[in-house]
Every structure is written in C-alpha cells, then in structure tokens.
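Researcher: Hi, I'm a grad student and pretty new to this. My advisor asked me to get structures for two proteins we've been looking at. I'm not sure of the right format, so I'll just paste the first sequence and hope you can take it from there.
Model: That works fine. Here's the first sequence with its structure tokens right after it:
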Amino acid sequence: MRAHFLQHVPFEGLGSIRPWLESQGAQITSTRFFLGEDLADLQPIDLLIAMGGPMSVGDEAEHPWLKTEKHFLRAAIARGTPVLGVCLGAQLIASALGARVCANPLKEIGWFPVQAVPTAAGSFRFPAQCTVFHWHGDTFELPQRAVRLARSPACENQAFQLNRNVIGLQFHLETTPESARAMIEHCRSELTPGEYVQSEAELKAAPAKLYASINSLMSDVLAYLV
C-alpha cells in the first residue's frame, strides 16, 4: 500500500497516523506545500490523506497551491481512491466538491465531546459520544450526497462520509502529546477566551488515556478506509 499525505505546515504532520501506516507495511510519501513541493502522480496512491493547517480554503492568493490541491482531491475522489481529510483537509474536500466552507459561529480549541449521528448500514460509526481534540475556527457544509457522521453543540458538521472511500473529520484524532505541544507553540495567539476554547494549561493537562483513545479511533477510521 502506498499512502500519500498532503502537509500544509511543518507542525501539522501525521501524528499517530504514521505508526499505524508503518504497522501495515505502507510506503509513505508526501507533498509538503510549505516547501513548494509538487503533487505526486495519483495513479499509484492507495490512500490519500489531507492534513490540517491554520489557513482557510479560500486563501488562494496567499497560498496558490490550495487551488491545485482541491483539483487533486476531486480527481482522487472521482477515481475511487480512499481519501481522509483532517480539519483543513476535510474543509478542502468539502470545498473541492462544491460545498460551502465558512467561519463557524464558535471557535473550538481543546478537548470536547462529539456525538455520533445515526447513519445507514455500511457507514463508519463513531461511538455514541467521545471526547476528541479540536482546533478550528472554520466549518464546512456537507458535500452533495455526503452523510453526517458526528456533531457537537459548538459545530453541527464534525465529520462526514461520501460513498465508501471518503471521510472528512473536523477534529484531530491523530493528535499526540508532541503534536499538541507543536500546535500550541505555533498557534498560541488563537487561545482567546471563549465558551469552547481551553487555556494552554488545560490543553497541556490532558491525560495519556485521552490521546490513546483518539489515536485508537483514528486507527479504526484508517482500517475502515483501506
């Protein structure tokens, strides 16, 4: 299996996704847009993962590669390639498929629960409620024919699935203590008081069992897609 990931900033990498891929014997390749790298040939890719980032999907003037990336994601989806989007990655998938992406009424940063939405047989099923790691100010509308998988009081569309091969997650199941510290270091200015914004101390105080829980759930998502 060849897994290719799209990385937008140096501090938002694969996290717990990497050891899962390595355990499957996957060949891991990447396009690091922040280094000006070109997109790969889509043909040999068995799993495509679009990671997060602090930019918005409409920031094409500042980041021209966003437009190219959306075309690439749309082509992969049409081809039937398994595609996973995380936070910005999920927003890019939604935008590539014609859905609106905009500011969410409430910013979500920290450890907050999401609730599963009942779906048709065969769709990925989240636990009825689980606490996950959030870091987002934008949200997406559902692409045409996509189904909502999860919601929260702060954000109606937390996860979606399209057909059997596409899942978008507004939250971060791949987060490790190391990646959480990196996000805090680079995005500390976003930690302004809010109903769903935790303090830096609260973010850093998350116990190991929370990371283990979300990383296990990410493994389930990946196993479902491939």
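Researcher: Oh nice, that was easy. Here's the second one.
Model: And its structure:
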Amino acid sequence: MDDAIKRPVLAYHLILSAYGFWLPNDPRGSWSRLVHNPNLVEFGDATKVNTHESVAHVAHDRKKRFAAKKALTYPPVIFNGLQARAVARGFGKYVEKSGVTVWACAIMPDHAHLVIARHHYDIETIGNLLKGEATKQLREEKRHPFESHAKKDGTVPPCFARKWWSVFISTEEHIEVSIRYAEQNPTKAGLKSQVGMWPFVVPYPRRYGEAENA
C-alpha cells in the first residue's frame, strides 16, 4: 500500500464557494453529480471529479465558464468588505461553539479558504455549519447579498454554493503550504492581507500536535 494512503488526515484545506463562483458543470470539474438549474443545462452535464485536490489550475474554456455564469438565476455573489466581515463573524461564532481549530482563513469576494485541524466532526459537517453561521450573521446584519430577493416568508436564496472543496492534508509540510496559500490569496488578488484580522484564527504550532511546546 502506498505510504500516502497510510498517513492519517491531519487537517483540511476547505474552500467555500459563494453562489456562482464554481458551477456544477465547470469545465475544470466540480463536486456535483447533477445540474439542477435548467438555465445551465445547455452548458453541459455535471463535471464530477473524484479528487480531494484543487483543480483550479486546470486549463479550461473560460468563455464557456463566463457564459454559464450569465445564465444563472441570480447574479454571482461578490461579497463587499462589510459582507466579508459578517461572514467572518459567523465563522467565528461557529468556531467558538464547536471548538474547531482554524489555522488560516481568507475571505475573498467570491469564495473563502480555511485551513482546519482534524476534528471529531467530519469536514462535511464543518463546511455546512460554517456556511450556516455565516448566512445567519449576514441576515442579522441585513447584509445578505440576496436581501432584495427575499420571498414572502422572509427566506432568501442561498449565497453559498451547495458543496465545497475539501483538500485532505496528511503531512505537516502540506499544512504549512496550505496556510501560506490561504494567507497569500488576498494579496495575490490585490487585496489587503487578512493575516491577524480574524480572532478565531490561531497560530499553527511549529510541530503538529505539540502546540504547548511550540
């Protein structure tokens, strides 16, 4: 058996997508099995991939991807600074309640990166609950991107995608690479660094599992 398969999962690099960021039939691949939005059917079937590695770097048809975004029921979500702050507050509330350890977090206009230590909750549960708390906070602050699309019962369309990417991390080196990637994401996009900005993010110990002695 390959050594990489034997290694236990130590952490996760979780990428949460805003609505419209990564479509089910994205030409690079997606986590979806079906295309639920009839407006997107003409752009092809779901591009399901069986990997826990990012496929963002894969060459693809950009024109097709942007054309599909224009066919969405609602415009793709682009969080402004106040909305990103509300998302972070929601993340922080979940972290406080759950005890999840977050070593890095970058909230971009259309997605978020979090590097999270392995927890007794599975990453699917963590991803769902992070999105839920962020959405709740956006509603409380009246900053939800789809407030103007609220229905008669007060509900609004989801501002996050149904699924997410979760990269499984099995080495300390990979943890550190993922943390650097998340931390550098904003500055590479021309935005302000978010290092030290979010109170729920804690420093990664120099040696995994030895935080008290780091």
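Researcher: Is there anything I should tell my advisor about the second?
Model: You could mention this: The helical segments are 3-6, 62-70, 81-98, 123-140, 172-188.
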